[in-house]
Specification:
2 copies of one chain form a homodimer. The first copy, chain A, is α/β, with parallel strands linked by helices. Chain A is 43% helix and 16% strand. Chain A has 2 domains: 244 residues, Aspartate Aminotransferase, domain 2 (3-Layer(aba) Sandwich), CATH 3.40.640.10; 120 residues, Aspartate Aminotransferase, domain 1 (Alpha-Beta Complex), CATH 3.90.1150.10. Chain A contains 14 helices and 14 strands. The first copy, chain A, has a 7-stranded mixed beta sheet, sandwiched between helices. The interface between A and B is large, with 55 and 55 residues. Chains A, B: Pfam families: Aminotran_5 (PF00266). Chains A, B: One of its GO terms (biological process) is glycine biosynthetic process, by transamination of glyoxylate. Chains A, B: Its cofactor is pyridoxal 5'-phosphate.
Chain lengths: 383, 383
């Protein structure tokens, strides 16, 4: 059957119909008064979503482009940075920082385990001559479904006093509480195809007053990703370069939907979707890759001991037209990942778990009571 | 009346209905086999459009991001580059090159005049120790409506033997002949919201074998805009970072429309639209900013002596819902620009010229025989 695909990967995520229709509107001029009004509204609502009074800038980039801008605008070649590495994205930021000549100190944990805040504390407390200029953290590590303890790590960064905290919130913003001003997060990067409920193509970066001070002395060559002109133009409700107007108009619609649901509603829904998915996996006798208390509300990584994760994904796709994500790099075949980020409701989880049960049966796996997964999810939803 | 806007700016350009509908399709996973098939087809058709057997890479960026990648991947800090400056975009590339520490030699002409190929010849012939590593040319200078003589300048670059030719073809590709392989153009950058007939959000870069050799020794720090990983992934019909899948699917549709029209058809249509627009402006007694023989097939800049160009734009917008572009920087108020790039037909030009006549009358300008502009355009279309 055509056009029945159900996307349960961590991005692109499902897009609501009214957002798709907004996307399909004929473009308007990006220097028109009409478009400026939309930019003004979008920027206000981005600040609401980030819980900040400071700047939130919009760039035409993938998430990686947003993270590059989030780093290179605020440090200098040779600067020491701590990079949290417990998955594919943490590792990517270490590589990115190295490409720009930063002195990268990796603070690592095994893939599937959370970063240890105490390890950051040790590095930061030992740094009495304040050589560490930034701490770079992946909040929700998409590759493993682990939510790192940003709040605690950030507290140690604040105690250090000098270092900026730079956050990859690509799959946490719009899924879990990221109170930018309350926590004093200096730079927070995210991407449109995640909690924002729109297709890929836009990156967002919030910047604190302290980060803007660091910007004044940051000399790494840059032009397209230089955030200064974005700030200057945002003050006039415009952008330095032609923005993807259709995506901005889609974003306007999506942000209004998010405001109607409210931050509390959004966060508790994602928490519920994650809990139901995790409980269902346990009831089916499948392993969870992220330990209890560190599951990402955006994505659940399931480790089906004794079964090939790729086979499960394949049956889910062929028989039930549900796209799940596989394991990346050395995790391929060991885990599959169920995305529950953005425009996802309780029914979607029930459909996914029911299809997972059916797929497991088809593969001859009998390690669970039929219906146990759906029942476990339903128990969470009934609470 | 709502939703009657007619876009006649040089980008975003009008988007065909079937492309808008393709854009509104539900996203698919960018790592799926289905999406890889689309990427393969799109890349093949981009090569057709560029008239090249070499690579054409697709990035999530505005045109400026594409030009940055087109430059920083192939030169080193301190390298001497010649930059053609006869408008806002040429000036922008000089600034960009300076931001990355290149030794920029500007080869300038007044805004509205074409670059002088002999000036390039002089610089290139005098460079006997081959210090010039690249020549950077804006083919169609969008800010002034001037088409620079790329073919001749490129011939002098080829005679030099060492320097790469790097081309901003943002408003020339898909409007006028840019035979990448025939001319041996090393790096050609363009953007989606122009001749491609889709909204902004994608940049394209073709890269010659000679440019890939220069890439091997190019050391300017880069990550998101590093073209190596794009090439490597394109060979597997994928991208290093999440692409804007909806725009790619829209591009698939648009490129198929372009193939159906054929390169000759596309180029002769743009030539005809330009000629009709220029003839009409002359018949209305309005000045043309670009001299005869150097008009861009993408955009015509009109200099209405004795009239405020901004007033004309304002009446055209308010009374006839036609968006024209204004003059940029010091040209504001002195010129207005009629975009005729991409999804534009003869009827659109007649509508624009007829509305321009009516607007001029409304402003009390009587320097033309009523109907003379439309008649002049119609004469071109009748040929």
């Amino acid at each position: 059957m055509e056009n029945k695909l159900m996307l349960m990967i961590p991005g692109p995520t499902p897009v609501p119909e009214q957002v798709l229709l907004a996307l399909a509107k004929h473009p308007m001029g990006h220097r028109s008064g009409e478009f400026s009004k939309i930019m003004a509204e979008v920027t206000e609502n981005l600040k609401w979503l980030h819980q900040t009074q400071s700047d939130v800038l919009t760039l035409t980039v993938s998430g990686t482009g947003a993270m590059e801008a989030a780093i290179i605008n605020f440090v200098n070649t040779g600067d020491r940075v701590l990079v949290g590495c417990n998955g594919k994205f943490g590792d990517r930021w270490a590589k990115l920082a190295q490409a720009f000549g930063l002195d990268v100190v990796k603070v690592s944990a095994e893939w599937g385990q959370p970063l240890d805040p105490e390890a950051f504390r040790a590095h930061l407390e030992a740094d009495t001559d304040k050589k560490i200029k930034a701490v770079i953290i992946t909040h929700s590590e998409t590759s493993t479904g682990v939510l790192n303890d940003l709040e605690t790590i950030n507290r140690y960064v604040k105690a250090h006093g000098e270092a900026l905290i730079i956050v990859d919130a690509v799959t946490s913003l719009g899924a879990v509480n990221v109170p930018v001003d309350d926590w004093g997060l200096d730079v927070v990067a995210s991407g449109s195809q995640k909690g924002y409920m729109i297709p890929p193509g836009l990156g967002f970066i919030s910047v604190s007053a302290k980060a803007w001070q660091a910007y004044e002395n940051a000399k790494i060559p840059r032009f397209y990703l230089d955030l200064g002109p974005y700030k200057k133009n945002a003050a006039k409700n415009t952008t330095p370069f032609t923005p993807p107007v259709n995506l901005i108009i889609a974003l306007q619609t999506a942000l209004n939907m998010m405001k109607a649901e409210g931050l509390e509603g959004i966060f508790s829904r994602h928490q519920r979707l994650m809990t139901a998915t995790r409980e269902a996996a346990k009831a089916l006798g499948l392993g969870l890759f992220a330990p209890e208390g560190y599951g990402s509300p955006a994505i659940t990584a399931v480790a089906p001991t004794g079964l090939d994760a790729e086979q499960i994904r394949s049956v889910m796709k062929k028989r039930y037209d549900i796209a799940l994500a596989g394991g990346q790099d050395h995790l391929k075949g060991q885990i599959f990942r169920i995305g529950h980020l953005g425009f996802v409701c309780d029914r979607d989880i029930l459909a996914a778990i029911a299809s997972l049960e059916a797929s497991l049966r088809e593969l001859g796996y009998e390690g669970f009571t039929p219906g146990a997964g759906v029942a476990a999810a339903a128990r969470v939803f009934a609470q």
